[in-house]
Amino acid sequence: PGSVSAAFQEYLQHLGLQDFPCGLGSWNKSCLNARRSPRAGSAGLKEAVPPGEETPEALLELLRDQHSPWALGPDCSPQDRLLREVAVLAPELLRGSRIFQAVKSLRILDKGVQEVDEGLLRFQQLEELVLSANHISRVTSAHLPRTLKFLELCYNAVGDLQDLCARPPPELQHLGLGYNRLCGPSQEKHFTVDFWPNLVSLDLSFNSLTDLLGLVSQLSTLQNLHILVLQGNPLALIPTYRGFLVDSLHKLSILDDIHIWPEEREQFRGVARQPELIRSEARVVVSIGEMKGLPNPEGFQQLEVGSEGPVITYSYCVTYEF
């Protein structure tokens, strides 16, 4: 699709909100017209359904029954189910631009999206936006609804946060940037209260952040931060990594998906006042379990003592890129 807006249109086609058993058609037209009529009272609702039409209850059953050909798959979201049921009970609420007012959660995963376009501003009630596993490299904050509280961008190609931090959503509580291309220290300056005054959860896992001292000095301004994920970054290899974070960020309750108990906080008390413990180097032990495609040394014939035959030697070099 290229853009979020194009991916959303494909998403709507997949839901089939205008097709049977959803939407307005010959299968429910007179019934819905009767319900919308100001003269239709309770007696009008109890009238027999015309031939060829279905009651709203029967149409909903076609959506909810897992054996129905119109049922959504088990991996569908609550938002998917809600929109389809609204399309049965009140299809006029989802016609034209009204559809954008009904969506509070938008999840577009692995659809080749490259651009977060300004079409997102039509979602004036949007609170949750998940765009994981796409090809997004930059996010323009001016294209994000101000109502956003949850933004997930993991498994993308985001390497620069300047555009995202130009005018970020003020009520954002979760920011997910795991498995991207963030490198410090140029990016670490963007994680302060000036940009994210209400941030509760931050995922920066599996990027290329290296400056632990610099990052912590920025994160310490986030007074509402309770959940932090930094595993997978080079800075997580520092021996005193966890202790330094636990002692530096007093509001933190979960670090790298592990709860911080009072006993652990007491154990690391004072580590934050000893920055000399944070060395810019780490020791890595690599064990090779199995190598394929190499000649078996046991298959070589041993030369007899004093033999003048040619001697063939093999040498191998294993390199690691960090």
Could you explain the architecture of this structure?
Keywords: Leucine-rich repeat, Repeat. InterPro entries: Leu-rich_rpt (IPR001611), LRR_dom_sf (IPR032675). This protein is an alpha/beta fold and 322 residues long. It has nine helices and eight strands. The protein has an eight-stranded mixed beta sheet, covered by helices on one side. Strand 7 (254-255) and strand 8 (258-259) form a beta hairpin. The relative contact order is 0.07.
In short:
The protein is α/β, with parallel strands linked by helices.
Share of helical residues? 10-25%
What ranges have pLDDT less than 50 throughout 5 or more consecutive residues? 40-45
Task: Give the C-alpha Rg.
Answer: 29 Å
Order of helices and strands: HHHHHHEEEEEHEHEEH
Number of strands: 8
The helix tally amounts to 9
Largest pleated sheet = 8 strands, mixed
Across the major sheet, the strand order is 1-2-3-4-5-6-7-8
Envelope shape: extended
> Strand percentage, roughly?
5-15%
Measured between the Cα atoms of the first and last residue, the distance is 34 Å
Secondary-structure-based class equals alpha/beta
Q: How much is the average pLDDT?
A: 87
Organism: Regulus satrapa (Golden-crowned kinglet)
GO cellular component, one term: cytoplasm
InterPro entries: Leu-rich_rpt (IPR001611), LRR_dom_sf (IPR032675)
Keywords: Leucine-rich repeat, Repeat
